[in-house]
Amino acid sequence: MSSLHLRFDPDLDYQKEAIQAVVDLFTGQVISNGSFSISSNQAGALVYDELGQGNRLEIEDKQILKNVQTVQENNSIPKIPELQGMNFSIEMETGTGKTYVYLRSIFELHKVYGFTKFIVVVPSIPIREGVLASINAMRDHFTSMYNEPFDSVVYDSKQLGRVRQFATSNKIQILIINIQAFQKDVEDDETSDTNSISSRANVINRESDRMSGRRPIEFIQATNPIVILDEPQNMESEKSKLAIERLSPLCTLRYSATHKNPYNLLYRLSPIDAFDRKLVKRIEVASVRADDNVNDAFVRLVGLSNKDNKITAKVKINVGSGSVVSQKTITVKMGDDLFEKSKRRQEYNDGYIVTNISLILGAEHIEFANGITLRINTAVGGFDEDIMKVMLRKTIESHFDKSLSVREKGIKVLSLIFVDKVANYRLHHEDGTISLGKLGIWFEDIYDEVSK
Prior knowledge:
12 helices, globular
């Protein structure tokens, strides 16, 4: 049986427009033509030092601003009067090939300017795995188009040799990393206990004998990588912004359908544009959103207490590791970190440190270092099980209703249910067996009931 090969169309106008918008951002940049060697030389778009080979930007901010304004004029976007830093946004409606566009932009930037070092930063592990799968699926496509070898790896703190290779290779390098893997820096930790510092900081930010006594992030910083943010609206906390800045990016390209802050917008393919160009079908969406959703970290303020002059709060959070996760009510005080209280679940590793507990009558609340404030019986970042069940029932009922109404027209109805994590639908046990998670059980029960 022959293996399945996907074919990608390289000539879609709207994708080429988005790619060209990024390429034109660097108009005036000189391409590098030198072969790689470790030295103190600087030539064209590349710079070399003792840690490896990196990107180099030769044009000044005023030229970048001029380029941005030209791109915006070409794409019917209001021109900015001044640069909002070196962050540049590309807005593309979901389902129009955003991942393809930013991956192909990598090869175009190398072809035109010689840039070689790129980092794709994602807000979660599932998105990271999706990006890796996309690269693997498109590898032959890009290789045939550009005839250029490239390496693509996922950052792994147990394989720091990949970081050194990223820095020293003269081939195109694509490093995929989730924001939580480099968010915690040594300087973030206020404790004076050296052992505690080394255990709490991310491996990438610790000195390592395997990296000649340097911190792995220093090798990345030396390359001045072009950083690509996938779904940047989920990485807008101050902690995330500082972590991205620590990568010493040459620039940051931000790709999303729903930007929170569209810095220096270069290209926009809105939902209306996508529909008018027949890129997406008509979609009906039924949704329930939790206010101020932050990276799917669920927190509900259950109660407050001032017993024996000790002010505490009771909060419900996700606790556990892997597929063994449950919502538990815990007691916290000032300075407690939900990352530790949750048994170091990554969704809480973004400033969920208690900074204030207020007992003011009628305005009782709890505050966290990331700016999140919760009042009594309010929640952030997740759904109660009752709401999730209602959403499932509504989706299934709507699916049957719509299917019956268009059946004679030969139209097939597709209903999508977005799951926060695979383990909630299907559990893979250590003994190799598989069973349904809570969402799977609810779905089958409701489906059987409604289908009758």
